[in-house]
Amino acid sequence: MLPRLEAILDQRQPDDSDPVLRRPLEDISQLVTVLRFRVDKDVELIFG
Fold first, then answer.
1. In this structure, what DSSP letter does residue 42 have?
2. Whole-angstrom distance, CA of residue 12 vs CA of residue 30
3. CA 37/CA 18 separation, integer angstroms
4. Which helix (H) or strand (E) holds 43?
5. What's the Rg (C-alpha) of the chain?
6. What pLDDT does residue 45 have?
7. Which of the pair, 14 or 11, is modelled with greater confidence?
8. Can you spell out the DSSP letters for 1-36?
9. Residue 41, Cα to own-chain centre: how many angstroms?
10. 45 and 12 in contact (C-beta within 8 Å)?
11. More confident residue, 18 or 26
């Protein structure tokens, strides 16, 4: 899941100013940060 989310972020354009697109990209960026932390610290992540 993490590689796919990172690929989505890599495809975004630096001038993505459309608020409809900006918010989901910000959410993805935050999720990637959490997932990277989880992987680095070997922390279990439970979706529920």
1. T
2. 15
3. 29
4. none
5. 12
6. 80
7. 11
8. -HHHHHHHHHHS-TT---HHHHHHHHHHHHHHHHHH
9. 18
10. no
11. 26
